[in-house]
Amino acid sequence: MRLNITHKTTYSYDRPVHYALLQLRMTPRSAAGQKVLNWSTTLEGATSQVTYDDHFRNVTELIEMDAGSSAVSITCQGEVEVENLNGVIGMGTGLAPLWLFLQQTPATVPGPTIRKIAQQVKKATEASQLDGMHQLSGAIADAVTYRTGMTLSTTPAEDAASEGQGVCQDHAQIMIAAARHLGLPARYVSGYLLMDEVVDQEASHAWAEVWIEGLGWVGFDVSNAVCPDDRYVRVALGRDYGEAAPVHGLRQGNATEELCVSLQVQQ
């Protein structure tokens, strides 16, 4: 399936900004199950400084906001050919060792709620890692209702789990925390999803990948109760949201910021 993606992110401020630096991870790369046919990033109110691959092989771009600007817009657009691999990415070609994805981060430290969820599938995971992770995905979906506006990008997995509600980012980080607690390497993936009968979306998507012996990396989208197929485009990965977020930034001054995101994913 060929997907056409247009993703525009605009930061507006109530006064000119003296200095701001943004780190972008918004460029997909050709990999297992996907081929990037074309991709471009257009900036307004900012200038690109350098582009490089980070330690997870994410295409990373640093941009500096033009001095005196009161808004910056980032528009990414392109086409990606995607193949249905039933979520199985395989062994991968990354530089990071598997043990790195066993390490919890502050965002994924499991508390009593996540440990309880993990305990429910411990025996199943010992018998079959793949079956155990499918059961874990279902257990998380049952325990944590998908509801927008209840968590922030900085909300730790345990907090979302104990509250029993969150969005795809929270589902992914809870899955990662629980899988690591069970001894399986796991990582966070940010990307895009072609939604049924929905063109205009409010945000990009996120899911988890877990290392399964004999298969390699396998994706699990807890929010949609599926393994990623040819509707999904992988953009960036990391140990948690913070390492795979589309945009990170810092700025000087006390200007009030407003964020506007426009996203279209079409076949």
Automatic annotation (TrEMBL):
SMART domains: TGc (SM00460). InterPro entries: Bac_transglu_N, Papain-like_cys_pep_sf, Transglutaminase-like. Residues 160-224 form the Transglutaminase-like domain. This is Transglutaminase family protein.
